[in-house]
Design a protein that fits this description.
The chain is of the alpha/beta class. The protein has two domains: 4-187, 3-Layer(aba) Sandwich (Rossmann fold), CATH 3.40.50; 199-326, Rossmann fold (3-Layer(aba) Sandwich), CATH 3.40.50. The chain has twelve helices and 14 strands. The strands form three sheets. It has a seven-stranded mixed beta sheet with strand order 3-2-4-5-7-6-12, with helices on both faces. The protein is globular.
């Protein structure tokens, strides 16, 4: 019988970090306020008491320094897990991530591996100020040498953080912050698949709806509302934005003939752009309608009082689904 436990996404990540640190004393955790405070979202709470200040420690408020330190530690054989406190704070580290971390394995012909995990709470929905509600995943998915993943369930959160830590490649681990306290069952005995493997969350026949991270709850809500109207919507959680499991998406589109992709980020030069383009290449003759994309509007993230108008909701997704079904 499986060893099942109910956890919130935040605490599933904590449990995954704890398991990884127990298994390998080369796993180090650091970032702004992660040790004494346990992180602003309390994701690293309790790890200092268990593992001590040599395994988990606070960094200065300097994101480029956090990633530079992680690169140096990886060169010395450690497996650093860094936290960028909020999504919008990652940009001071952009140079370190894209021009150093992403390239060092290739530059050294594989001699120097970079098992660095960068944890990034991302997305909106928490009523925060500027720089606290970004969706920067496409910048990093565009950069060769980086793996980019995002869990949407506690079970995925528990296993994918461990898989990311075990990877010899650098991994951007985007955590859907507005879902941190969403609870679900976690199977402590068996991983649900590889960290880049897409998951069919709901089977359907009329249209394929692709989402990831914080948008998965909205996609599932849209599918449930659509089902009440007789629409059979297949929902796919891609779980990974780089690489993307196109095979699962294409197989679904060949069955349904229609595709809608939804995420919080702007749709311009986005993960949804790549999915729509690749499906058009690989399943063109199976499409009954053009692929449609639903995302945040192409404007800077708005003030908190406007964010619910900015973020895609079930109605906006269902509008796109109605349009592809009517085509």
């Amino acid at each position: 019988m499986s060893n099942m436990v109910e956890l919130a996404i935040a605490k599933a990540i904590t449990a995954g970090l704890r398991e990884a640190m127990r298994k390998d004393d080369k796993v180090l955790v650091f970032g702004e306020d992660v040790a004494q405070l346990g992180g602003v979202f309390r994701v690293t709470e309790g790890l200092l008491a268990e593992f001590g200040k040599d395994r988990i420690f606070d960094s200065p408020i300097a994101e480029s320094g956090i990633i530079g330190t992680a690169i140096g530690l990886a060169m010395r054989g450690y497996r650093p897990v860094t936290e960028i406190q909020f999504d919008g704070f990652i940009f001071p580290a952009f140079d370190q991530i894209t021009s150093q971390l992403a390239r060092l394995q290739n530059r050294s012909e594989g001699f120097t591996t970079m098992p660095v995990v960068i944890r990034v709470p991302y997305g909106g929905g928490i009523g925060a100020v500027e720089h606290h509600s970004e969706s920067p995943e496409a910048y990093f998915a565009h950069t060769p040498g980086l793996r980019v993943i995002s869990p949407s369930t506690p079970n995925d959160a528990y296993w994918m953080i461990q898989q990311a830590i075990e990877s010899t490649d650098p991994v951007l681990f985007f955590e859907p912050k507005r879902r941190y306290w969403q609870k679900g069952m976690v199977n402590l005995d068996a991983a649900p698949g590889g960290m880049h493997q897409a998951r069919v969350a709901v089977a359907g026949n009329d249209v394929t709806l692709v989402a990831y991270g914080p948008m998965m709850n909205v996609a599932l809500e849209a599918a449930a509302l659509g089902a009440e109207e007789g629409k059979s919507i297949e929902v796919i959680d891609i779980r990974s934005m780089s690489p993307i499991d196109f095979a699962t998406i294409v197989e679904s589109v060949k069955k349904t003939g229609r595709l809608v992709v939804a995420h919080e980020a702007s749709t311009f030069v986005s993960v949804s752009s790549e999915i729509a383009a690749r499906v058009a290449e690989l399943a063109f003759y199976h499409l009954e309608a053009p692929p449609l994309r639903v995302g945040g509007f192409d404007v800077p993230y708005p003030a908190a009082k406007l964010e619910e108008k900015f973020l895609p909701d079930a109605d906006r997704i269902l509008d796109a689904i109605d349009r592809v079904l009517a085509y």
